[in-house]
């Protein structure tokens, strides 16, 4: 009996030790089952991207240089058309992260249609990279001439209309007397050439293409005066995702910061553009390049929100500070 009891006790002890060891293993197994690894809670992340824009150069650089992989992440690209389209997909979990213009994301946050965190920056405007343009024979030569005219934009609510209104007002004209028409980016040059609109808002690389192919003239630069250094676009994630996946979010932000940082070198920007946007070397070497910040600056993002309030795209003053992601201390 004593031998039997000792055998039972030893067996229980072995089972207990195995169970305890299994708890640690199960912790890892649970992560693996959820798609995690030893670095992140979720290894495969779905990222909503609007293809071929110059704004996503930092993301494409991070992807091409293996920065996401080094952080334990595998990126699954999901093509989207706009930030507005991305918002409901973020809410339902179809996307973990999404690229888009800050104006749309801030509007969604302010209106309560989404709870987002600004995880990484995309592009900051710089003079010469985005403008309102007209055909060379057009009588429109400056923003002062735009009263009663039509401007082609990619969306009626967004950073394009917002910055256009700001530069028009700064020139002494009334933005209320300008008609904004939605023209898909793919049809922008044709719409301008055939007279469907008087002026088109273009951003690189389309701006350089229009200059080279149509000889367009710049009516107003959309990155000067009240919109100098304007924060154009960035990457967001649902607040719940950030809370539940802190290591994954931090890994994504670090990879993006490395990709963005590489683009301080203009030759790297131009080479990256040729690789993912399939630009001809003549276009890639001529595009006006903006700034690719390595982190989201609350002060610059606040300027976007304040400008939105000025032009009625926000109903009340909005403090951006709570939505800006801050990586946890190491």
Automatic annotation (TrEMBL):
Residues 1-21 form the signal peptide. The keyword Chaperone does not apply. Residues 56-265 form the SsuA/THI5-like domain. Its main location: periplasm. Gene3D superfamilies: Periplasmic binding protein-like II. Keywords: Signal. It is found in: Periplasm. It holds the Pfam family NMT1. Belongs to the bacterial solute-binding protein SsuA/TauA family. This is ABC transporter substrate-binding protein. It comes from Amycolatopsis nalaikhensis. The lineage of its organism: Bacteria, Bacillati, Actinomycetota, Actinomycetes, Pseudonocardiales.
């Amino acid at each position: 009996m004593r031998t039997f009891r000792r055998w039972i006790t030893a067996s229980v002890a072995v089972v207990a030790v195995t169970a305890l060891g299994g708890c640690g293993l199960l912790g890892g197994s649970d992560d693996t089952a959820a798609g995690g690894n030893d670095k992140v809670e979720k290894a495969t992340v779905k990222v909503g991207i609007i293809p071929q824009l110059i704004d996503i150069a930092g993301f494409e650089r991070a992807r091409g240089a293996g920065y996401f992989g080094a952080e334990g992440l595998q990126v699954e690209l999901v093509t989207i058309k706009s930030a507005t389209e991305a918002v409901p997909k973020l809410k339902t979990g179809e996307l973990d992260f999404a690229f888009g213009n800050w104006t749309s994301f801030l509007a969604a946050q302010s209106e309560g249609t989404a709870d987002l965190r600004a995880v990484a920056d995309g592009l900051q405007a710089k003079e010469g990279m985005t403008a309102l343009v007209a055909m060379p024979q057009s009588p429109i030569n400056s923003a002062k001439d735009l009263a009663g005219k039509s401007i082609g934009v990619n969306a009626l609510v967004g950073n394009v209309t917002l910055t256009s209104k700001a530069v028009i007002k700064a020139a002494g004209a009334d933005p209320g007397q300008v008609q904004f028409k939605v023209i898909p980016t793919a049809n922008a040059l044709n719409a301008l050439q055939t007279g469907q609109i008087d002026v088109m808002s273009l951003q690189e690389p389309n701006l350089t293409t229009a200059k080279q192919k149509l000889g367009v003239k710049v009516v107003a630069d959309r990155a000067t005066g009240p919109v100098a250094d304007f924060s154009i676009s960035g990457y967001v994630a649902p607040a719940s995702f950030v809370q539940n996946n802190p290591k994954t979010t931090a890994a994504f932000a670090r990879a993006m910061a490395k990709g963005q940082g590489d683009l301080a070198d203009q030759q790297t920007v131009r080479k990256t553009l040729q690789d993912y946007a399939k630009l001809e070397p003549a276009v890639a070497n001529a595009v006006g390049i903006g700034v690719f910040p390595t982190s989201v600056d609350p002060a610059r993002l606040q300027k976007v929100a304040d400008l939105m309030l000025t032009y009625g795209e926000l109903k009340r003053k909005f403090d951006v500070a709570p939505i800006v992601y801050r990586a946890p201390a190491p």
